[in-house]
Design brief:
The chain has helices at 42-47, 108-111, 138-144, 192-203, 214-226, 252-268, 272-284, 351-357, 412-427, and strands spanning 9-10, 13-19, 24-31, 39-41, 52-62, 67-78, 88-95, 134-136, 145-151, 157-162, 165-171, 184-188, 228-229, 235-237, 288-290, 308-312, 321-325, 377-378, 387-391, 397-402. It starts with 8 loop residues before the first strand and ends in an 11-residue tail after the last helix. The chain contains 9 helices and 20 strands.
């Protein structure tokens, strides 16, 4: 769409209760009659704990960016304020981001117009900026409509009655916009030729260079720009965070509840002593430290408590009982530490590449690095996001924090592998004729 000086357009939004099998949340949704696909953000689908089903679909968004979805979720929508008792069920494609955030518009003049007086608006936040977690396509949009409509005197604004209340959209009498964007989301059905081509690609050996997502590239750039070394050579890393950042809430109460549950479970299995030994090993090896009194009162957004539990690994040659942290546990805002982090790309070579290398040399070496994550230091600014609870020798519960990478934090595997690569690249020519890691 070319740039012109037409008035801004107000899009149809509503506040809706969105329910999965386990959770219900009220969110702002976009009712889009130009879309062929209903979309939900992956972050919100995880918040709902919605069961995801495999369903690969290519989507194209004219005017913005290509999308790809390999999951769908089934949800139920209804009005949170009982405007209507009607409910609709939808199937939404899971994508990383539904669309650009809504821009703010001054709707005070619109709210005073005669044609919407006495009508309950579906979106009490109409015109306010914000992100969109769910977008309804044309088919699902029409299922929300009731029979009534109204129009402004100029005819540029129209209101439609829906199961959520009245939605308002059209040209607004605000400052003219210098930019207009045309968006249309289309589902792309694969042809027989495209399906055959995809099957052929599955049989091909992986290339040396893998395409990275923008988040993966950001994780790599952050690692390269923020990772430092101590005088003894040990690497110090920072967590790769998503942008924009998500707000963490209070997390200690759920960590305390899980701590007590874990104690009772380990007692029944007669594994509590082994678990306590592992946790105390953190302090003895200087891998953790007690949270200073002055840091205990930090804002919730600057700390996170990790619920911890023991996982048995009978086949492990180094650690039979491993202490794992649950960084996916939700804080009081519904956001977990893992929700705020970029997982990062997999830096491990493809299995086919590894198997082929066994044919190149006469001798192959294999090794297991004991407590690999704990060989890498966390930057001091990151340690309060790795707090945990421990019972001391007199039975009191204390607040501690990790100084090393931690199992259960989604970015730890990437950071550990990236650190190993950094070390081998820095020292690959020392007493070796080839790089240690490829």
């Amino acid at each position: 769409m070319h740039k012109d000086h037409r008035n801004n357009c107000l899009v149809h939004t509503a506040l809706a209760s969105i329910a999965s099998d386990k959770m219900t949340y009220t969110r702002r949704i976009l009712i889009d009659s130009g879309s062929e696909a209903t979309l939900i953000s992956r972050r919100f689908a995880n918040t709902l704990k919605a069961k995801m089903h495999k369903h690969h679909t290519n989507l194209s968004v004219r005017g913005e960016f290509p999308l790809e979805s390999d999951m769908v979720v089934d949800l139920t929508l209804f009005c949170p304020r009982k405007y209507s008792t009607r409910k609709i069920t939808i199937q939404a494609y899971v994508v990383d981001k539904v669309c650009k955030d809504l821009q703010g518009q001054d709707t005070r003049q619109i709210r005073q117009m005669d044609f919407i007086q006495g009508k309950q608006l579906a979106d009490r936040l109409m015109g306010e900026p914000g992100q969109v977690d769910l977008l309804l396509d044309i088919a699902d949009s029409y299922r929300c409509y009731l029979i009534n409509m109204a129009s402004s005197a100029s005819g540029e604004l129209k209101a439609f009655e829906t199961i959520f209340g009245w939605i308002v959209g059209g040209g607004t009498p605000s400052t003219p916009s210098e930019e207009a964007v045309c968006r249309r989301i289309e589902k792309h059905q694969e042809t027989a030729d495209e399906i055959c081509e995809r099957l052929w690609k599955i049989d091909q050996l992986p290339g040396e260079e893998e395409l990275l997502t923008s988040d993966d590239q950001r994780a790599i750039d952050l690692f390269n720009s923020t990772t430092t070394r101590e005088e003894n050579g040990r690497l110090v890393v920072q967590l790769p965070r998503k942008y924009p950042t998500l707000q963490l809430g209070e997390s200690r109460p759920i960590a305390l509840q899980r701590f007590l549950q874990n104690e009772r479970g380990l007692c029944r299995k007669e594994k509590l002593d082994e678990y306590v030994t592992q946790v105390r090993d953190y302090a003895e090896r200087d891998h953790a430290e007690k949270v200073p009194i002055e840091d205990l009162a930090k804002p919730n957004s600057e700390q996170f408590y990790l619920p911890m539990h023991g996982v048995e690994k009978a086949m492990s040659t180094t650690t039979k009982l491993r202490v794992v942290s649950d960084a996916s546990a939700k804080s009081s805002t519904g956001i977990s530490l893992n929700d705020t982090l970029i997982t990062g790309p997999s830096l491990y070579p493809e299995l086919t590449t590894v198997l082929n290398k066994f044919r190149l040399w006469d001798i192959a070496y294999s090794a297991d690095i004991s407590k690999m994550f704990r060989e890498i230091l966390l930057h001091p600014a990151e340690r309060d996001y790795h707090r945990y609870l421990v019972r001391n020798s007199v039975g009191e519960i204390e607040d501690w924090r990790m100084k090393r990478l931690t199992f259960g934090v989604s970015s730890s595997p990437f950071l550990a592998t990236a650190a190993l690569r950094r070390i081998t690249q820095d020292h690959s020519e020392e007493n070796f004729t080839a790089p240690l890691v490829e």
